[in-house]
């Protein structure tokens, strides 16, 4: 059985994330979306709220599960779930530059965990979670 994890803060989840999850669900027997703590981000939603949003967006996918991880490294979460693959998304050259460093970090921790990159469809990759949060912030002020 091919299991993969897709870690991220998902604050909020957007159509690019969903597109990647849908693509991964076709390639892997099981995909675990991992709501992760990112110490470099200030989340607007708590982990349970983010989990509920993710669940509402992926309910049509029967082989996708959602877990919360706020206390262990991503590589440890993969081992815990017996996942051999880690899913990442790419939108731009900036993402690629970051992902090369991320890849090296993951491989330093667990050389057996394979990282698989997906590019979301063009019409779904333009808005990042950060931009969506900024839009929401200013909409609330109107």
UniProtKB/TrEMBL annotation:
Highest taxon, organism lineage: Bacteria
Entry cofactors: Mg(2+)
Main location: cytoplasm
Cytidyltransferase-like domain segment(s): 5-134
Any one annotated GO CC term: cytoplasm
Keyword terms of this UniProt record: ATP-binding, Coenzyme A biosynthesis, Cytoplasm, Magnesium, Nucleotide-binding, Nucleotidyltransferase, Transferase
Keyword Cytoplasm: yes
Function field: Reversibly transfers an adenylyl group from ATP to 4'-phosphopantetheine, yielding dephospho-CoA (dPCoA) and pyrophosphate.
The protein's assembly and partners: Homohexamer.
Protein family (similarity comment): Belongs to the bacterial CoaD family.
Protein name, UniProt field: Phosphopantetheine adenylyltransferase
């Amino acid at each position: 059985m091919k299991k993969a994890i897709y870690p991220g803060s998902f604050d909020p989840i957007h159509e690019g994330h969903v597109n990647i999850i849908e693509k991964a669900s076709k390639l892997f027997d099981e995909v675990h979306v991992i709501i992760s703590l990112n110490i470099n981000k200030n989340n607007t939603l708590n982990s349970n709220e983010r989990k509920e949003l993710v669940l509402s967006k992926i309910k049509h996918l029967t082989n996708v599960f959602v877990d919360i991880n706020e206390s262990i490294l991503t590589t440890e979460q993969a081992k815990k779930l017996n996942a051999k693959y880690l899913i990442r998304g790419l939108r731009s050259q900036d993402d690629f530059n970051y992902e090369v460093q991320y890849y090296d970090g993951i491989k330093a921790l667990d050389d057996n965990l394979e990282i698989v990159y997906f590019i979301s469809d063009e019409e779904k990759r333009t808005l990042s979670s950060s931009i969506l949060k900024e839009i929401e912030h200013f909409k609330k002020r109107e």
